[in-house]
């Protein structure tokens, strides 16, 4: 077993990575977390450690949050910079594990990041897998807000209705009150099953705080960086999430492009995915629907998700034996 928890320099910032493998010959699978700013090392190494039977698992706290909180200037918190960081990390992993290419997977903001990475830095990527797929930031928030408001009205939940009306409908994907307005919308959306079909009572405390603390994955300094960093990063970068329009800008890729999406996702609404996917040109592409899932099918339908992940990626690894 090789267990590497360290910091490496990515474009002038020391950033936290955690890589685990029981066989260095296995393909490397890099996880890109969501948010922006919401680290997921704890989830990967508790709920999905079984993927070690197939992959070398690599996780990373993106600049400005968690173990990568320190020494980051706000003006460097941009989508282009984080994409460049990701490309440099891909190269580092290839060199450390003697690979020509690795696999990359990401959910929510992580799916936006891997989409940009796949288009702009494809050379060292064997394939990408997105879930909770970001497509169009403005439409994303319009649909998600209307879902939450209508669900609250149908439930007679006047408190939630009043809160959403106070926040107001998003304008160009952004909410009045910034971070606080976004969180208010997300809390109502989660309450009515827009995030998870299997856990409709899910809250941000249950989704984030409790698992983070229980996991033991983060040092005290990492935890401080998480608490201080995620709001700062999300606030700094949300404009770039809100204005993304992949159907206009990202439809041609030089790498195999997979989307594993929950049918009931209203966090990044599933209804936006199909038309964009149909327009994508790639050496190989596939959209797989998870009919019992919301925003995170890896959590809602883990057995199916990981079975298909292994099957699809190992087909590519075997076809490019020696390269991945």
Write up this protein:
The structure is a single chain. The chain is an alpha/beta fold and 324 residues long. It has a single domain (2-137, 218-319), classed as Rossmann fold. It is 45% helix and 16% strand. The protein has helices at 41-47, 79-96, 109-120, 137-154, 158-167, 179-191, 204-215, 220-242, 246-249, 273-279, 297-300, 302-319; strands at residues 2-10, 13-21, 28-32, 56-60, 102-107, 125-131, 257-262, 285-290. Strands 1-2-4-3-5-6-7-8 form an 8-stranded mixed sheet, sandwiched between helices. Strand 7 (257-262), helix 10 and strand 8 (285-290) form a beta-alpha-beta unit. Helix 2 (79-96) crosses helix 3 and helix 4 packs antiparallel against helix 5 (158-167).
